[in-house]
Amino acid sequence: MAGQFGPQLVLLQDGPPRHTHFRHLVNQTFSFKRTEELSPWITQVAHDLLDTMPCGDVVVTESYTVSLPVKVIARPLGIPGEEYMTFKQWSDAFLSVKPLSNDARTTHLQKMVAYVGKLAAVRHEQGA
Question: What pTM value is reported for the model?
Fold first, then answer.
């Protein structure tokens, strides 16, 4: 693919049957039932973020609207809380429309793929 950097991403650039297999796995993780089960936790995270925002001039985007989706997406993927911001940095580097060298993007993507691969291996060993 012209202009592609890093490895091909299954859910964005792949077709059946590989895409279908991985889409099924993602659908299980982010199913309506699973999201409903996480609803109390998501509500608590939203309240905690609001409670910890500084008073006065606040940049809501950084303090709330960025942090909330990162936490909500990372948790079902099995990413521990202390790694949320690292996950966000990797995601930003990959999805950013801001100028970033291909080397920097590739480095972030490789780190993210390696990290998620380790998480998947652990989950597989645990039978999850």
Answer: 0.65
